[in-house]
Amino acid sequence: MLIGKQSDIRPAEITPESVYRQRRRFLQQAGFATGGLLLASGCTADEDELELRRLAVSRGSPFSTDEEPNAFEDIISYNNFYEFGLGKRDPARLSGKFHPRPWTVTVDGEAERTGTFDLDDFIRGQPIEERVYRLRCVEAWSMVVPWNGIPLAALLKPFKPTSRAKYVAFETVMRPEEMPGQRRGLLDFPYVEGLTIAEAMHPLTILALGIYGVELPNQNGAPLRLVVPWKYGFKSIKSIVRISFTEQQPPTTWSLAAPREYGFYANVNPEVDHPRWSQARERRIGGGLFNEKIPTRMFNGYAEQVASLYAGMDLRKNF
Ligand code: MTE
Questions:
Q1: Which backbone phi and psi does 234 adopt, to 5 degrees?
Q2: Helix H or strand E encompassing 77
Q3: Domain for residue 132, yes or no?
Q4: Other CB atoms closer than 10 Å to residue 283's CB: what's the count?
């Protein structure tokens, strides 16, 4: 994703303690469910450290892959979140001052119902499901993440989008005082993204609130982020504050920053290379010492579910 100067990149300098503390908190949370894990972690319950609340999650979605999920530690320590910095470890290291609560979501544009809602009201009554999805970054690495979220369609339908609503636009929070990457102007913030209305309403598309049965850590886009598993990871916009139904295709941060490199659709496609690297293969994060690249699959392996959305479309032009 790099378009900035190499000198902007910080050395990887996460403190082992901060990863340890996050893991410890997670294990403590898990311990409340199992008892056993709490003992196994060797931790004593410390109320002050319970920062990631458990979520009530239903499992067994037919959309989940049975591939082995990445470890919690991988998922929370190797991130892209330019609001906190360019380095993969910056989001974990520099998001401690970010406050994901209280949080509001504004829904506006071409819909019968619009307004600004407290997050709890926005999601009220919607069951949270586990969806174990592959995540393929445009940079040619990937993970398997057990997301906890709500189908976007279930959240959007009550707003009754009108027939003019052809697209759905998303916007990340703007809080330079809490987000050092915004202060440094690393991208043209706020980060914005968009989907066609058919993509937004597709049953694979979710708004995630958690991973591994606990609330999203800040670095993963707390408290609410999009997950669109057949698209490159940059479509999965984090820390969403606005969702707009639009008639025109909305601008997207990466296609504005580098239009020849990043398109609006950004469907995972091993046959269409990035101008600067191949997209045919990917490296699974956490794969150990001889971490060979594995083949990338069309639509990230979700072709059966989503290929019909693009019938007749030239996927080289609409990249
Ligand atoms: N959302 C915002 N607001 N800012 C970002 O920099 N990075 C994107 C996406 N969402 C990004 C974002 C990219 S490039 C990827 S690969 C995924 O988030 C990474 O999600 P993860 O850190 O949870 O793995």
A1: -65, -15
A2: helix 72-77
A3: yes
A4: 15
Q: Which residue, by CA, sits nearest to atom 10 of ligand 1?
A: 237
Ligand 1 binding pocket includes 137 (Cβ within 6 Å): yes
Do residues 199 and 154 lie in contact, with contact meaning Cβ atoms separated by under 8 Å?
no
CB of residue 155 inside a 6 A radius of ligand 1: no
Report d(CA 255, CA 260) in Å as an integer: 8
**Going by CA atoms, what residue is nearest to atom 12 of ligand 1?**
237
C-alpha span between 106 and 288 (Å, rounded) = 42
Q: Which residues span the domain enclosing 261? A: 68-310
- Inter-residue contact 111 to 164 (CB < 8 Å): no
Across the chain, mean pLDDT equals 88
Q: Which residue has the higher pLDDT, 79 or 28?
A: 79
Q: Is residue 236 part of a domain?
A: yes
pLDDT at 240 exceeding the cut of 70: yes
Which residue of 2, 74, 81 sits with most ligand 1 atoms within 8 Å of its CB, as the best mutation to test the pocket? 81
Residue nearest to atom 3 of ligand 1 (CA): 238
Tokens of 53: 């609340």
**192 within domain boundaries:** yes
User: Model confidence over 147-156: pLDDT tens digits?
Assistant: 999 999 999 9
Please check whether residue 83 is in contact with residue 100, taking contact to mean a CB–CB distance below 8 angstroms. no
| Structural domains counted in the chain | 1
Give residue-wise pLDDT tens across range 83-97: 999 999 999 999 999
174 domain residue, yes or no: yes
Q: Render pLDDT for 128-146 as a digit per residue (tens, 0 to 9).
A: 999 999 999 999 999 999 9
Is residue 179's pLDDT more than 90?
yes
CATH number of the domain at 233, please. 3.90.420.10
Residues 116, 106 contacting (CB under 8 angstroms): yes
